[in-house]
Specification:
414 residues; Aminopeptidase; Nonspecific Lipid-transfer Protein, Chain A; 5-stranded mixed beta sheet
Length: 414
Amino acid sequence: MEIRTIREDDIVAWTDAMSIGFHKVPDPDKENQEKRIEHWRERAEFGRSRGAFDGDRCVGTFRSFATGLTVPGGAIVPVSAITNVTVSPTHRRRGLLTRMMRADLADAAARGEAAAILIAAEYRIYGRFGFGVAADFQKLRLDTLRTRFTPGVLAEPGGVVELVSPLEMTRVGPAVHEEFRRLRPGVIGRSALWWDLYTGVRSAPKGPEPARFHAVYRDPSGRITGLIGYRSDDHWDEMVPKVTLLVDQLIALTPQAEAALWQYCANVDYVNAVEAADRSPDELLTMLVDDPRAITSGSRRDFLWARILDVPAAFSARTYGAPGRIVLDVRDDLGHARGRFAIDNGPGAAACTPTEDAPDLSLDAAALGALYLGAGSPVRLATAGRLTEHTPGAAARAEAMLRTEREPWCPDWF
């Protein structure tokens, strides 16, 4: 069984294997195959895209791409984003995922990427590779007939919402997103291809994205400080409209823009409910209405997983919520994060350096990844036995240092 990076002439076999892994029947249409080749020639970095081959047949897929991850304080850290991970059902339990993962993580560490990130289709797979849940998400549903936005809350006289074309969104959206990503830990970059595919300006081989409305919010000065993409159904019952508006994305640079965009959605004619998936776990929406019970939250779920590859680089890049010094002893079966490190948030810039000092806390690489963006709780991990406290009160000190005011959030699937 051979594990190797793919070439252009492997694209059809590789994408067929990915379809099988995700329970989709491969498309034999030659025209579609040509579209796939053209699409993946642009999208994939062949040196970062691996396949498992049994003879000439591809039976496993794995791809990563370089992106930046926003960390507490607004710095953007280079990371490896892992995606398109499959193993065909005929070749399970043969160690193919382990071989592809180990090779990709080693390459990422050699390139100087401070961490790897992924979205886990199955929860129990990735902890053994040192990944921990770094950011959650939730789904929201607003019953527009039961509530209204509280008058005057975050009102910004002179601000307006404008509908824009998909092409216009590809022109104005990237700059807004680039500014937004500095504001929230957990956000990753978006490529020009991402914007083209999301808006439907271009189509992927699987077909175009659903048609969406796109809108922007302009503050009183005319500056765009928020944007939204949404769809709606056309459901009527006995001549009574019962339309649901589905928010695909809503990002805002200010609370005023965020409030205005939510209020816009709730006030579209015929709309009885607004639904939004993949929202931040500490969404402001419930604080903007006069009856928060009209907003139901779907179960909070894990979303972004992180695996630290370079502890000093990763933890020196972020900021901390309280002054202090904490020494971590990290266990890592793969070796990338193994060692003892001091996080020192003293006068001047925070730093993380290797040390031989006695540890305050010991933990494994997965727990370290869970703490990185500020959502994880050292106190809870210690209580659950996933973190060992050697110095009394060290978990509480680490909690004050590592936790963030707003929870991290990744708005994008990848």
